[in-house]
Amino acid sequence: MRKPILAANWKMYKTAAEAKEFADQLLSYLQEGASLKQPIQEQVEILVCPPFTALSAFAAATQGTAVAVGGQNLYPRKEGAFTGEVSPLMLKAEGASYVIIGHSERRQILGEADELLNEKVKAALEYGLKPILCVGETLEQRRRGETADFCRGQLAAALAGLDQAVCDTLVVAYEPIWAIGTGESASPQDAQETIALLRQWLAEAYGPAAAAKVRIQYGGSVKPENVAGYLAMPDIDGALIGGAGLQASSFWKMLQAAADLGV
Ligand code: PGA
Predict the structure, then answer these.
(1) CA distance 174 to 187
(2) What angle do CA 16, 17, 20 make, to 5 degrees?
(3) How many domains does the chain have?
(4) What are the per-10-residue average pLDDT scores of the chain (263 residues)?
(5) Could you tell me the distance, in angstroms and rounded to a whole number, from the CA of residue 175 to the centre of ligand 1?
(6) Can you tell me the distance from the alpha carbon of 209 to that of 212, in angstroms, rounded to the nearest whole number?
(7) Phi, psi angle pair for 99, to nearest 5°
(8) Distance from the first to the final alpha carbon of the chain
(9) CATH code, domain with 182
(10) CA-closest candidate to residue 198, choices 142, 135, 122
């Protein structure tokens, strides 16, 4: 049974002080929920990915709680002359246990290519960070019917050279680019269909048992009003949330929706 994971990707929002404020609010919600028969954190994994400059403050504020912390990117070296970059070792030292890799904003705006992303996944694993590997098609690719092939190609490229052990920690986020930050989301059925095909690819590459362990999230305009529809789908194991994860109250509503489903 895969435990769903709801992750807030803050992108380039929030200072350290604002991150601490969010943490305090989220923790007070969690405390209120602690008296429930089954506390929310037992049913859903909770992850927040702040920008690098707020990661340490957020991790300090949530240390020892059920809230996990992730980076939004890394550079695939332990250290070195890489101006402006952050290493997996540094993320780990600041309290991160996850790292987002290959978000479409990095692929498109910063030109990150498959080969580099493959190195990043390997570096995350080497330093004990769990990768959240993002894949997703453009609107043109969807219209041409290329969604499944394109996303499977992205998976294959990012996971090249890795054996089935990667399935023990890997999280995949299926994020159709046209649904990110646009308010236009893929329907739960469409997301399920693509995600099932991604799992099928994983099963072909690593065997069905390994593929069954991988959590695959949907991302793209997820909000409190629509999150339950995705989580009710058999292959969707959580969500990667941008805009709606910037307020603790709305993030909390989504966590509650997930727990209500008993997924
Ligand atoms: P959104 O972003 O929820 O604001 O659409 C999702 C993401 O980019 O991870």
Answers:
(1) 13
(2) 85
(3) 1
(4) 96 98 97 80 96 98 97 98 98 98 98 98 98 97 96 98 98 96 93 98 98 98 97 98 98 94 72
(5) 8
(6) 5
(7) -150, 135
(8) 9
(9) 3.20.20.70
(10) 135
Q: Is the pTM of this model over 0.70?
A: yes
Measured by CA distance, the residue closest to atom 2 of ligand 1 is: 242
Q: What are phi and psi of 3, to 5 degrees?
A: -80, 125
Here the tokens at position 158 are 């990012």
CA-based angle 220:235:170, to the nearest 5? 80
Residue with CA closest to ligand 1 atom 7: 242
Given CA atoms 251, 256, 257, 259 in this order, what sign does their dihedral have? positive
Distance separating alpha carbons of residues 50 and 178, to the nearest angstrom: 23
Q: Among 45, 103, 105, 137, which one carries the catalytic annotation?
A: 103
For every residue of 49-109, DSSP letters joined together read E--HHHHHHHHHHHTTSSEEEEES---SSSSSS-TT---HHHHHHTT--EEEE--HHHHHH
How many secondary structure helices (H) and strands (E) does the chain include? 12, 8
Domain that holds residue 151: 5-261
Q: How many Cα atoms are found within 13 Å in the side-chain-facing hemisphere of 16?
A: 9
Nearest-CA residue for ligand 1 atom 6 is 242
Q: Is the CB of 9 under 6 A from ligand 1?
A: yes
User: Does the active-site annotation cover 112?
Assistant: no
**The pLDDT of residue 262:** 75
* Residue 45: φ, ψ to 5°: -85, 135
Q: Which of 80, 13, 35, 43 is nearest to 254 (CA)?
A: 43
